C-alpha cells in the first residue's frame, strides 16, 4: 500500500512539473525582450524599432492595452534600467507598442517601438504628417474621442490664409491649443502644430511646426533660447470652420461631478423602505410592548417594556413629522 | 436600599478612580510644562526639546486614557459583583434585580460623565501652562463665545430644543454604551464556564459588527435620500426637519436601551434560575 502511494505521489509530482514546464517554455518564446541600450524590442520572432521624433508624442490612454513585463537581452541592459514594462495594444501587436523605462541616469521615459512593416508610416507621423489630425479643447479630460478632427486638406487650405509674423514668446501670451497628427490605430499622436486664438476677435491662427528646424516646440518648457525667434501664424479665412472650432473650444462637457448629486431619486422606494423601518417596525415594537405590559406578571419587566414603547413612539413620531414636512 | 447600593458601587469605583484622576491631573500639568519647553526656539539643547515633544505626546495619551481606565473599572466591578463568588452574596441582598442593574448603570453614567469633565479640565490645565498667552487672552474667549453663538444661530429660533435634544442624546449614548458592554459580559458569563473574558470580547466585537451592518443597511436604504430631500427645503423647514431627525435618533437610542436592558434582565434571571 505504501509503495502504491509513493508511486502515485511521484506520478502526480511529475505531471505537475510537466504542466508547469510547458507553459514556461512557451512563455519564454512569448517574452518581450529589450535589446541592448534599448535599441530594439523583440517578441515572438518580431523586432520593433524605436520611434524617434523631435516633437512631443502623446499616448492615447483611452485605447485598450495590457501590460507585460519587459525582459532584458543582457546583464548590462538589466543593470541600466530599474523598471521596465511594455504596453501592448490588442489586435495591433505588430504595429506599435509603448515601453516604459526608468533608469537612474535618464529618469522615467516612455518610448514607442514600431514593427518593421510600419516604420515608414510612423516616421512620417513623427514628422507630423498624417491622414488625421486632432485638436483638443481644455475640457477633454483625456477623452481622445472628443477631439475636433481635421483632414490634411483642411489644414493645407488653412495655411493658404494671410500670415501674421510675431515672436515665439508672444504666442504663449495668447490662448493656444495643441494640434496632433494621429496614427491610424489611434494609439499615438504627435504634437505638430498650435492653434492660437485671439481673445478679443476670436480669430484663429495656425502655427505649423514643420516650417522650423529648431526644437523649440518640444514640450520641455525651455524656451529661453528661442523666445526671440519669429514664427508665422496663418489666419483661418473659412468663417464656417472658424465658428465650428470656436464652438468646440468653448463647449464645456456636463459637470463631471454631477453624478455625485442624485438628480432622480427613487422616492417611492425610499418612502417604502423608510416607512417599514421607521414606521411599521417601531409601531410593531410599540404594540408588542403594550401587549407585554398587560400580559406581564413579573413587574420588574414593566420598565424596560415601557422604555421600548416610548422609544418606538418617538421614532414613529419623528418619521411622521419629517414626512409631513417633506409633503 | 437603592441609595445604599449606589453608595457602595460608587465607593468601589472611587477607591481606584481617584488615583487615575490625580495621575491624569499631574500628567496634564507635566504636559503643559513640556509644551512650554517645546515652544522655545533656537536653543542648543535640542535633545531636551525633543524629549519635551515626546512628553507632550504622552501627556495627551495619558489624558485620553482616563475614560478608558474608568470604563475598565466599571466593567470589572460589574463582572466581579455579579459573576464571581461575590455574586452569590450580591444576589442574596434584599434588593430587586432591577435595582442592582440600575445601580451599576447609574454609577457608570456618573463616572463616565466625571471622566469627560475631568478630561476637559486636564486639557484646560495643560493649555493654561503650555500656552498661557492664548488661554488667558480675552480675545480667545471672545472668539470662543462668538463661535458658540454662531453655532447656536444655525438653529434659528430652535436652539433650546436642539440643546435639549443634544443633551438627551449624549445621556442616552453614555447609558447605551455601558449597558451594551454589561450585556456582553452577562451573555458571556451565562453561556461559558471558562474564559469568560475572552468570550465577552468575542461577543462584543461580534455584536458590534452586526449592529454596524444593520446601521449600514439603514444608511444605504434610505437615509442619504431623506437627507438630500430635506436639504432642498427652505431654511426654517430644514431646521425643523433636522430637529425631528434628532428626535428619531433619540427614539432609536431609547428603543435600544430598553431592548438591551430587557435582555440583560432576562439573562440575569435565567442565570439565577428565576424563570
Describe this entry's structure for a reader.
The complex is a heterodimer of chains A (327) and B (275). Chain A has 327 residues and is α+β, with helices and mostly antiparallel strands. Residues 23-27 and 257-262 of chain A have low confidence and may be disordered. In chain A, 37% of the residues lie in helices and 26% in strands. The radius of gyration of chain A is 34 Å and the shape is flat. In chain A, helix 7 (267-295) runs antiparallel to helix 8. In chain B, helix 2 crosses helix 7 (159-191) and helix 4 packs across helix 7 (159-191). The relative contact order of chain B is 0.10. The model of chain B has no long low-confidence stretch (mean pLDDT 85). At the A-B interface, helix 7 and helix 8 of A face helix 9 and helix 10 of B.
Shape of chain A: flat
The average pLDDT of chain B is 85
Helicity range of the residues of chain B? over 70%
Indicate the proportion of strand residues of chain B.
under 5%
Low-pLDDT residue intervals, each spanning 5 or more residues of chain A: 23-27, 257-262
- What is the number of helices of chain A? 8
Question: What general outline of chain B do the C-alpha atoms trace?
Answer: globular
Per DSSP E runs of 2 or more residues, the count of β-strands of chain B stands at 0
Query: Which structural class should the secondary elements of chain B be placed in?
Result: mainly alpha
The largest inter-chain interface, given as chain pair and residues per side, is: A-B, 36 and 33 residues
How many strands appear in the DSSP assignment of chain A? 15
The overall pLDDT average of chain A reads 80
Query: What is the gyration radius of chain B calculated from CA atoms?
Result: 23 Å
- How large is the count of helical segments of chain B? 10
